[in-house]
């Protein structure tokens, strides 16, 4: 099977194999990487983390786990411009630097193996973690506790003072949404680094995972434009137009479609 097929096979399991699926995403970009080998090596990290945890009930070990990861060198990568390696899980394991989501996926896999109850939270702009029933969230980049005021400050630092914290921002993320977010992150990272083919691989995966937005179709359309594929660009612009609720965006999409050559049929 191809890495993409193996990726979707992970999602079909019960429960879905979230961490392994993330490794198969990385395998699409690095043919030399073996997810099976990374999974085998992961046991060593698990042992090192476990050895440093305090003797507490598992329900109280989520923050100590994240702090132990930080002690072992895992931290947010602040180098700019960001490169795809901050979201490719095997590279994050090698370098111990990555985006919050990548660090969160590693933490969730460690928590799963150590039977520590922890879930992901699709917080805008900065992936977070939570122990069910707790009155706070946890930052995967070091384990800091975030209470509602901290979450509000984090949100406004990223999106400006006019955005309001809502319950929707604090929802638990299921595996599909985490992997779709990872794919969007990689799409943007590859695009920023002028790897249009790599970005297209991720853009296609985003849409194959379902519930693609107008911006997802528009992102892939822009890649097809750069790669001089007008028929594929038209297909995605038409889908973006159908999904868009923004009148200004709809006008711009219609104008852009009008400048494309007619669909050509190859015989």
Any key phrases for this structure?
267 residues, mainly alpha, Serine Threonine Protein Phosphatase 5, Tetratricopeptide repeat, three-stranded antiparallel beta sheet, two-stranded parallel ribbon, 7 strands, 57% helix, globular, SirB1_N
Describe the structure in your own words:
It comes from Pseudomonas frederiksbergensis. This is Protein SirB1 N-terminal domain-containing protein. Belongs to the UPF0162 family. Pfam families: TPR_9, Transglut_core2. This protein is mainly alpha-helical and 267 residues long. It has 2 domains: 3-173, no CATH class; 175-258, Alpha Horseshoe (Serine Threonine Protein Phosphatase 5, Tetratricopeptide repeat). The protein is built from 12 helices and 7 strands. The chain has helices at residues 3-12, 18-29, 35-51, 62-71, 89-95, 100-113, 148-159, 175-192, 196-208, 214-226, 230-243, 247-258, and strands at 75-76, 97-98, 119-121, 128-130, 137-138, 145-146, 172-173. It has a 3-stranded antiparallel sheet. A hairpin with a 6-residue loop joins β5 and β6. α1 runs antiparallel to α2 (18-29), α8 (175-192) packs antiparallel against α9 and α11 packs antiparallel against α12 (247-258).
């Amino acid at each position: 099977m191809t890495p993409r097929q193996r990726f979707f096979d992970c999602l079909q399991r019960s429960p879905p194999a979230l961490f392994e699926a993330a490794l198969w995403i990385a395998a699409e970009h690095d043919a030399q990487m073996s997810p099976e080998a990374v999974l085998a090596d992961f046991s060593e990290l698990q042992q090192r983390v476990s050895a440093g945890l305090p003797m507490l009930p598992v329900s109280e070990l989520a923050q100590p786990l994240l702090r132990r990861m930080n002690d072992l060198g895992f931290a947010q990568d602040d180098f700019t411009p960001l490169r795809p390696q901050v979201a490719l899980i095997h590279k994050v394991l090698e370098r111990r630097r990555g985006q919050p989501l990548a660090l969160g996926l590693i933490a969730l896999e460690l928590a799963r193996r150590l039977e520590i109850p922890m879930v992901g939270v699709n917080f805008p702009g900065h992936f977070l973690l939570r122990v069910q029933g707790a009155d706070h969230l946890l930052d995967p980049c070091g384990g800091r506790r975030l209470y509602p005021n901290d979450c509000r400050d984090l949100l406004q630092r990223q999106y400006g003072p006019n955005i309001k914290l809502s319950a929707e921002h604090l929802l638990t993320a299921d595996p599909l949404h985490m992997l779709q977010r990872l794919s969007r992150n990689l799409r943007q990272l590859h695009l920023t680094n002028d790897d249009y083919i790599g970005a297209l691989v991720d853009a296609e995966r985003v849409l194959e995972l379902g519930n693609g937005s107008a911006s997802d179709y528009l992102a892939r359309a822009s890649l097809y434009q750069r790669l001089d594929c007008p028929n594929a660009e038209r297909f995605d612009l038409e889908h973006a137009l159908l999904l868009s609720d923004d009148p200004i965006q709809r006008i711009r999409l219609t104008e852009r479609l009008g400048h494309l050559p007619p669909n050509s049929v190859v015989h």
